[in-house]
Amino acid sequence: MSQEILIKAGQLILSLSILVVFHELGHFIPARLFKIKVEKFYLFFDPWFSLFKYKKGDTEYGIGWLPLGGYVKIAGMIDESMDKEQMALPPQPWEFRSKPAWQRLIVMIGGVTVNVILAFLIYAMMLWHWGEDVLPHDKVTFGIQTDSLTRSIGLRDGDQILSVDHKVIEDFSRVGGYVVLHQAKTIQVQRGSEQVEINVPDTFVGQVVANKATILLPRTPAVIDTFGEQSPARAAGLKVGDRVMSVNGATTAFVGDLLDTMKLYNKKPETVTVGLLRNGQALQVPVQLDSTGKMGIGFASPMDTTLMKEYFQPKHIAYSFFESLPAGVRKVGTSLNNYVLQLKLIFVAKGIKPTESVGGFVTIGSLFPPVWDWASFWQMTAFLSIILAFMNILPIPALDGGHVLFLLYEVITGRKPGEKFMEYAQYVGMIILLGLLLFANGNDIYKLITRH
């Protein structure tokens, strides 16, 4: 478990480091192009001391010890450094405040712009290198696997999803997310020989979020894909590719059925008889469960074209370099839209509490996989880059968006806000940001404490 935590933490730190450096480069490069003096360029914050620093020209480059972001200190600008002494002196031609408003505006939107460009490049290069795998909605052979939440609204195991609010979603992996993000009102399904319309209650989305449930998964045959380190199933002779059909006579041909059945053996180190299909041959194998009542097996995904080829027909889409570019743009648009819809849910969906939906670094770190997988890492980094861009452009003092708001006011009115006003606005913004930071990370700590 500690190894998994270290791997997740390593991915989080590397991802944030990449994003912060590129974001600050977005400010640094146009500032230097406009001959504005940049005094510091830091990855992470450096109160009292820094881990590493060196000076080249007028700029000190370094790495701080507090991994909460990074910054560039631009001369003649009211920012988080709150350098009042410099601001009290007469403006110098190489200072930020001495430059035309349009140049200052470009400097301030540079970080957000670079984050959006970075997300686009990551998505485009991923599509070019790995392509994209989708599961067409009409190729979900066994329909859906329900849980207590989805059964409560009338869905049943084996239902074939036809559409959501009468909109056909071609990639089945996006159906569950669409239902939640768009607060769907109806789901149309094929059940046997009849078509059924399921009405989705207003409280459903709140229940999904509160339970951190992943809904509308394909009903997947229980085909073994991996074994745990000390797997009782492997010790008993089970092999990758075996399909588990029963446990002590209870039918478990699908993953959901097997998981439900194994709950009966929670913390019971019993010996169970596992019915298997191996290369078309039926076998009965006794398995001694571990002390937690587990067999120590993992299951193949419907996207596994080797182990699941006889059950599903996923579609692989390959992209040429030039095809990946517009596809990358679409990915950025989709990811940004989905993130905005997630934020909207906090305020409009019934039954959703901010404490269940807002998290800090622990929550973000948990989104990375427990093993180092470059495809997942870059996917997550691209999404975080979009989040960083969106959050930074919000019109809150101390964020890029706050500076942009005041600069737009100056461009429109021809009047620059007073330095005292900017100073107080910066204080207010920093208090807001610090409060949000404490709330989000305090919420993470509270969840960790109450979970154990």
From TrEMBL:
Stretches that traverse the bilayer: 12-34, 105-130, 383-409, 421-440
Membrane topology label: Multi-pass membrane protein
Locations listed in the record: Membrane
The EC number(s) this enzyme carries: 3.4.24.-
Alphabetical UniProt keywords: Hydrolase, Membrane, Metal-binding, Metalloprotease, Protease, Transmembrane, Transmembrane helix, Zinc
Example of a GO biological process term: proteolysis
Cofactor: Zn(2+)
SMART domains the UniProt entry points to: PDZ
Domain (PDZ): residue spans on this chain: 186-280
CDD domains: S2P-M50_PDZ_RseP-like
Primary location: membrane
Matching InterPro entries: PDZ (IPR001478), PDZ_sf (IPR036034), Pept_M50_Zn (IPR004387), Peptidase_M50 (IPR008915)
Gene3D superfamilies in the record: 2.30.42.10
EC top class, as a word: hydrolase
Pfam family of the protein (one): Peptidase_M50
GO molecular function list: metal ion binding; metalloendopeptidase activity
Protein name: Zinc metalloprotease
Species whose genome carries this gene: Chitinophaga parva
Gene name of the record: rseP
